[in-house]
Design goal:
149 residues, alpha+beta, Metal Binding Protein, Guanine Nucleotide Exchange Factor, Chain A, 9-stranded mixed beta sheet, binds zinc ion
Length: 149
Amino acid sequence: MRYSGQCHCGKLTASFETQKTPAALGVRTCQCDFCRRHGAVNISDPDGEVTIDCAPKDVERYSFALRTADFLICKSCGVYVAAVMGEGDSIVSTLNVVGLRLKDFLAVAEAPAEYGAETTEERIARRFDKWTPTRFEHPDLAASNFGPH
Ligand SMILES: [Zn+2]
C-alpha cells in the first residue's frame, strides 16, 4: 500500500510504501523537545520505501544536538515533514504523519519513544536499522549528505 501526503502549502511531498497496515506498523511520538514542539507523530518501515519530492530552495534542513540527521521543514509553511539521514544508496528517513496529514495513521494509538540516553553511534545504528529506505526525486537532494555532519 502506498500513502502520500504533503506539507500545508504543498511544496514538500512524500509517499510511503509499506506492506504493513497502519495498526500493525504503529506510530511513535519521539519525546525530544523538537518533536514535542511540533506535535510530531512518526512512522518508519525498514522493509518499505519513502520517496520525497521537493525543490532544494523550498526546504530547510535543520539539525541540532548530535546533528546526526536533517529535519526537513518547509520554508513556506513551516511544517516539519521528515527526518533524513545518510547519503547515496543508504538514505533513510522517518516521516511525520501529522505534518504530512497521512490520515490513515492519525487514528493509530501513539507509542511514546525516548531516545535521549543513546550515544551518537547507537542513534545512527538504530536509524539505519529502523528507518525507511528513502530516495529523493530532485537530483541535488539525492546527491546530498544528510548527516552525520
Ligand atoms: Zn509547505
